[in-house]
């Protein structure tokens, strides 16, 4: 093998090794981030709840925040309905008619164990960004519960 | 990213290629697991994100939706 060819080959291999190493490092960073943290097991539930509440409060308008504080729910406008998201993990989303009466109740929540305020934020985001998907995936929930 | 501890956070500076690359790797990994990622400006409606955008100030990764 000519020396010039060996040099090109070596440069190519070194560049490839660097590229693969960088990719492996990035994947490791992502996997590390996704691993359940020790906090998941040792943080008291109240701390998780408080963190989730801060995240939710940041996403809400002042009116929604006030409703949540005083009444335990807030409203979200979809294209088809206005929704009332009550504090709860399941069956806590009410579809309202134009007079504010409950016409349907839905149950849809994020997979896994997350604090109630994360559930409410997820429901708000789903309704705002893809109401049809929300209505398609959510299970109907009896109104009298 | 929402989880049982409330949420886990990572931050990046748009001018730092290494921080952006790390954040993008996390973005891609959560999307691969079926999470929805949203931009959520304070007090406004959320916006679903299909691709990583280093200039978005806050992203929230939500686990897949399940019914009932």
Structure characterization notes:
The complex is a heterodimer of chains A (145) and B (68). With 145 residues, chain A is α+β, with helices and mostly antiparallel strands. Chain A has 6 helices and 5 strands. Chain A has a 5-stranded antiparallel β-sheet with strand order 1-2-3-4-5. In chain A, helix 3 (45-59) runs parallel beside helix 5 and helix 5 packs across helix 6. The longest helix of chain A has 32 residues, at 3-34. Chain A starts with a helix and ends in a 5-residue tail after the last strand. Chain B is an alpha+beta fold. Chain B has one domain. Chain B contains 1 helix and 6 strands. Chain B is globular and about 45 Å long. The two termini of chain B are 22 Å apart. The chains are: A alpha+beta (145), B alpha+beta (68).
Supply the key terms.
heterodimer, A: about 140 residues, five-stranded antiparallel beta sheet, 6 helices, B: about 70 residues, alpha+beta, three-stranded antiparallel beta sheet
Give a short overview:
The complex is a heterodimer of chains A (145) and B (68). Chain A has 145 residues and is α+β, with helices and mostly antiparallel strands. Chain A has helices at residues 3-34, 38-42, 45-59, 62-71, 116-129, 131-137, and strands at residues 73-77, 82-86, 93-96, 102-110, 139-140.
How would the blueprint of this fold be written?
The complex is a heterodimer of chains A (145) and B (68).
Chain A: H1 3-34, H2 38-42, H3 45-59, H4 62-71, E1 73-77, E2 82-86, E3 93-96, E4 102-110, H5 116-129, H6 131-137, E5 139-140
Antiparallel strand pairs in A: 1-2, 2-3, 3-4, 4-5
Chain B: E1 2-3, E2 6-7, H1 17-32, E3 36-39, E4 47-48, E5 59-62, E6 65-67
Antiparallel strand pairs in B: 1-2, 3-4, 3-5
Number of helices of chain B: 1
Instruction: Please indicate the percent range of residues of chain B in DSSP E strands (runs of 2 or more).
Output: 25-35%
Rg for CA atoms of chain B: 12 Å
What percent of residues of chain A adopt helix (DSSP H or I)? Answer: 55-70%
Structural domain count of chain B: 1
What is the terminal separation of chain B in angstroms?
22 Å
Q: What best-fitting shape of chain B do the alpha-carbon axes yield?
A: globular
Order of helices and strands of chain A: HHHHEEEEHHE
Summarize the amount of helix of chain B as a percent range: 10-25%
Number of helical elements of chain A: 6
Topology pattern of chain B, helix = H, strand = E: EEHEEEE
